[in-house]
Design brief:
Blueprint (H helix, E strand, L loop, with lengths): L4 E6 L7 H14 L4 E6 L5 H9 L3 E4 L6 H12 L4 E5 L15 H8 L3 E6 L7 H10 L6 E9 L2 H11 L6 E6 L8 E2 L2 E2 L8 H15 L2 H5 L3 E2 L16 E5 L9 H9 L3 E5 L13 E4 L8 H6 L1 H9 L3 E5 L1 H5 L3 E3 L5 E3 L6 E4 L6 E9 L8 E7 L2 E5 L6 E4 L5 E5 L1 E3 L2 E4 L2 E5 L2
Parallel strand pairs: 1-4, 1-5, 2-3, 2-4, 5-6, 6-7, 11-12, 11-13, 13-14, 14-24, 15-17
Antiparallel strand pairs: 1-10, 8-9, 15-16, 17-20, 18-19, 18-21, 19-25, 21-22, 23-24
Length: about 425
């Protein structure tokens, strides 16, 4: 079977349009009849769901800070299965990552030998675009730049100015995508509005794909990727917390990493899904319950009234583990942005609040103090809620940030119930 080819879509900074262009490329190639798959660099929970809507295939996260090179290579092998083309979307700016550590999009492209398609936001630039492009192309050795896509081009005259300025670099211009209000998408405090929330998503993706198909050189892009060589997985990414695991999945609990769930299934665990928003209880035969993060604060009133769900948690003898939003729901109360307090499961002595929004962001190195895992872990936090009050309970992890700065003991553990704000990505390299 022919090997899939892959390339990376990156940009100098967030907001350059790389997600929009990635979605457009995925759908444009799919509309041509290609079997196209994708991946997202970093700990993002939202963009991968948009990828899946555009490609019709699962999208996995690839994290060069949290994962061994061999793990990333094996996940690329999984993504490569039955695909002709794999598009990897970068995170933030090309060279952005944990300070002093491997973890940027450039690191992943170098380690995996993948060429880079660099997206440049041209909206407020003329001839200066050449200095920006030259700086990124020459900043580090060991990278291959397949070409440039210029985004938010205003007019034919603007396109001519940009093209002339970039000509001396001798790097192919693979696209000149015109500025259009129809190529924007609404924001929310963790990023883009979730893919499954908006009924107009299909129209947005098709509109984007038409623009990308019209204004990029799709045939040229197909020749620029490199073949993904199969590599097998070197052991578990994260051991399953049980043999029969019930996983909450709906708009309030949507931030479960696919690579973790797939890894648990490969290890022989059985996964069943349930919806707290529909007042469903976890499967009665499960020995572990996983409440991922998401947006429970947007549905706090509904969750507080869903007694079938809450009572099932309260009476369960299974191991119950919650991350971020799931952690908040395991607490006694959740205070929303308007200051309204809603009773939650009451299984951990915890009240969380959005009344005073504060960003908590960054990678986490985690040493388990109990619970389902014993080896050091790597994870990530990204939330605006804060702990309003905590009672007495055991801690779940000792934590440091990516640079090794001590963050103390985090999370709570009481009997079979435990959780923290950290999203666990995998066992530490």
């Amino acid at each position: 079977m022919p090997l899939a080819k892959a390339f990376v879509v990156a940009a100098p900074s967030s907001g350059s349009g790389k997600t929009m262009l990635t979605l457009g490329l995925l759908r444009a190639f799919r509309n041509r009849g290609l079997r196209v798959a994708s991946a997202k660099v970093g700990p993002d929970h939202i963009d991968p769901r948009f990828h899946e809507a555009a490609s019709g295939r699962p999208c996995l996260n690839l994290d060069p800070w949290a994962m061994k090179r061999e793990v990333i290579a094996s996940l690329l092998t999984d993504i490569n299965h039955d695909a002709d083309l794999v598009i990897v979307e970068g995170v933030m700016g090309l060279f952005d990552g944990p300070q002093g550590a491997n973890g940027s999009t450039a690191d992943l492209a170098r380690d995996m030998g993948l060429p880079i398609v660099l997206v440049l936001d041209s909206a407020h630039q003329g001839q200066s675009i050449a200095a920006l492009a030259e700086g990124f192309i020459n900043h580090h050795t060991g990278l291959t730049f397949a070409g440039l896509i210029l985004n938010r081009v205003a007019s034919d005259k603007h396109a001519a100015i940009l093209t002339a300025a970039l000509a001396p670099l001798a790097v192919p211009i693979l696209g000149l995508v015109r500025r259009s209000d129809s190529l924007n998408w609404p924001s929310r405090h963790l990023g883009l509005v979730q893919a499954q929330e908006n009924q107009e998503l299909e129209l947005f993706i098709e509109t984007t794909s038409l623009a990308v198909a019209r204004e990029t050189k799709l045939d040229k892009l197909l020749t620029l990727g490199v073949e993904i060589r199969p590599e097998s997985l070197p052991g578990l990414i994260l051991p399953p917390p049980g043999q029969k695991i019930a996983v909450a999945e709906d708009l309030a609990f949507s931030f479960a990493y696919p690579h973790i769930l797939q890894g648990w299934q490969k290890a022989g665990a059985e996964i069943s899904l349930f919806s707290p928003l529909k007042d469903e209880a976890p499967h009665a035969g499960c020995d572990a319950i996983f409440l991922p993060g998401g947006y429970p604060e947007l549905h706090a009133g509904l969750l507080a009234g869903n007694q079938t769900f809450l009572n099932a948690l309260r009476s369960s003898k299974a191991l119950i583990y919650g991350e971020c939003g799931g952690f908040m729901v395991l607490g006694e109360a959740l205070i929303d942005a308007k200051g309204e307090s809603y009773a939650m499961a009451g299984l951990l002595p915890l009240t969380t609040s959005f009344a005073a929004r504060k960003l908590h962001l960054g990678y986490r190195q985690l040493l388990p103090l109990g619970g389902p895992w014993t080896k050091p872990l790597r994870g990530h936090e990204f939330h605006y809620s804060s702990i309003a009050s905590e009672g007495k309970a055991d801690r779940l992890f000792t934590a440091t940030d990516a640079a090794g700065e001590d963050l103390g003991r985090i999370g709570l553990r009481r009997g079979n119930v435990m959780g923290s704000y950290a999203h666990v990505i995998c066992e530490a390299p």
